[in-house]
Design goal:
This protein is α+β, with helices and mostly antiparallel strands. The protein has a single domain (8-302, 342-480), classed as Amidase signature (AS) domain (Amidase signature (AS) enzymes, Alpha-Beta Complex), CATH 3.90.1300.10. It has 17 helices and 17 strands. Helix 5 (155-162) runs parallel beside helix 6, helix 10 (301-316) crosses helix 12 and helix 12 (342-366) packs across helix 17. Belongs to the amidase family. It comes from Amphritea atlantica. This is Amidase.
């Protein structure tokens, strides 16, 4: 049988019905993964022998009618996620001798459920950027068009799933790192509520903003993976809520939905805006009560960048040679992180409370728990660039490079966000829509996303742009003029950081 176009749920049904064995499915997946690796470069480490042993164990269990909910299903995990005995470079040539002796709790949950991990996927150095290129692994490209970026930092995961090299991949999102590649690659990405998915043991930095979550081609597949890695905790019963929603899923009919096409501040291309408006119209036609509103906040990019880079440097500086062997972009980030004062960091941390209060006020005044926006304001740009030069009429410049305005809030306040394709833009590349809710409403967010998915009617089959022209590398990765004085420009912007604290304490 040909399993290439099937979803994770369909493949698991085939495995349970013994229409295919786990070993056969893995070998089919490996064959295709080799083609995908050569064409788009989404894998950092191939674990084929390890996977073959896991598939053989899965076949033994399946033959007895046993095995967990993912038994025999080939999947991938992100390079930065711990897997005992497997190298953990985090995309950096400075980390090539790191081999963890423990496995991340989320990864362990996947293996305990019977998933067969056949590869780790590429990320940029230390997962710091929204594109996926490194000196260690090279550039990962987009299965829709090899001239374009796959996004980042879970870019390898996005490209692998979009190209059909496995139906599920575990991503990590500290500033859009699941949602950006999902958007650019035309797949589903879900950033769960903070702490809904246990991560430790894991890399220590960004511990208050990162969530591990599923990347898939359908919302149902993403929910399935999430159901395996999520855990109830003292704050919310995440798994129990999934079971409840399985019996009584949300319907859009009569459902209040808050929508904003630009948050009042976000740069956005015209094709994104018009496509989003069309989807909102379809929501209204489906019976949803549309409320136009937003949190009435400035962009959170300053607070996010300050908190993230200060935290990154606080751990990096403990190494014997903290700056040795790092790429230039990473050095810029580290230098910025080292230059942030404790007062500036605390101002950014305080602003997280202001963001939380603004979102709570928005949900409360509208008596609603669903907020829908575009995911990004732009289609995937050339992979030779670090960022788009323009979004709409806004030039994207240093110090903050704010082209992903819709991303940061969910990380800073720990709320769930699911993104899914909403159509094609003017350049025949995927556009994406984002569904958010208050912290703890993960199951409801997935319900609404699935209802949206049905309305949109997206083709979830794997994509392959191999027949398209090779990438044009005429544009440099970073204009020389733009690259001058990056840190100096960041320092000049510091006055705004301290103003943030004023908005909290007034």
């Amino acid at each position: 049988m040909n399993s290439g176009n099937k979803t994770a749920i369909e493949l698991l049904e085939d495995l349970r019905a013994q229409r295919i064995t786990a070993t056969e499915l893995l070998e089919q997946t490996i064959d295709h993964a080799e083609y995908v690796a050569e064409t788009y470069n989404p894998f950092s480490v191939k674990l084929y022998d390890r996977a073959r042993a896991a598939a053989a164990r899965a076949d033994e269990l399946l033959a007895q009618g046993l095995g967990g909910p993912l038994c025999g299903l080939p999947i991938t995990i992100k390079e930065s996620q711990w897997l005992a005995g497997v190298p953990l470079t985090n995309g950096s040539t400075s980390e090539t001798d790191v081999i963890p002796q423990e496995t991340s709790a989320a990864v362990q949950r996947l293996e305990d459920a019977g998933a067969v991990i056949f590869a780790k996927t590429t990320c940029p150095e230390f997962c710091l950027t929204g594109t996926t290129s490194s000196e260690l692994y090279g550039t990962t490209t987009n299965p829709w068009n090899r001239e374009r970026t796959c996004g980042g930092s879970s870019g390898g995961a996005g490209a692998a799933v979009a190209a059909g090299a496995g139906t599920l991949s575990l991503g990590g999102d500290g500033g859009g790192s699941i949602r950006i590649p999902a958007a650019f690659c035309g797949i589903v990405g879900f950033k769960p509520s903070y702490k809904a998915v246990p991560r430790e043991p894991c890399n220590p930095s960004w511990s208050t903003i990162v969530s591990y979550g599923p990347m898939a081609r359908t919302v149902a597949d993403a929910r399935l993976m999430y159901s395996v890695i999520a855990a109830n905790n003292d704050e919310h019963a995440y798994v129990d809520s999934l079971h409840t929603h399985a019996l009584h899923p949300l319907s859009l009919a009569g459902q209040k939905v808050i929508v904003s096409e630009d948050l009042g501040i976000a740069p956005i291309d015209d094709d994104v805006r018009m496509t989003f408006r069309y989807i909102v119209h379809q929501l209204k036609e489906a019976g949803a009560e549309i409320i136009y509103d937003h949190p009435h906040l400035p962009s959170s990019v300053i607070a996010w960048a300050t908190a993230a880079m200060y935290d990154t440097w606080s751990f990096q500086k403990e190494k014997a040679e903290p700056l040795a062997g790092l790429e230039q972009g990473t050095l810029d980030s580290m230098t910025f992180g080292a230059s942030i004062t404790e007062e500036e960091f605390n101002a950014a941390e305080d602003h997280r409370e202001a963001i939380h209060a603004a979102y709570k006020a928005m949900f409360d005044r509208n008596e609603c728990a669903t907020f829908i926006t575009p995911t990004l304001g732009v289609e995937a740009f050339k992979h030779t660039l670090r960022h788009p030069k323009y979004v709409g009429s806004t030039r994207i410049t240093y110090p903050w490079l704010d082209w992903a305005t819709f991303m940061y809030d969910a990380n800073l306040i720990g709320t769930p966000a699911c993104v899914l394709p909403m159509g094609l833009g003017n350049e025949n590349l995927p556009l994406s829509i984002q569904v958010q809710g208050p912290r703890g409403t993960d199951a409801a967010v997935l319900d609404v996303a699935e209802q949206l998915e049905k309305i949109i009617g997206w083709d979830h089959s794997p994509k392959d742009s191999a027949a398209e022209p090779q990438a044009d590398t005429a544009e440099s990765e970073l204009d020389e003029e733009e690259g001058k004085g990056i840190i100096h420009q960041m320092k000049r912007a510091r006055a705004r950081l301290l103003q943030l604290r004023g908005t909290v304490t007034k």
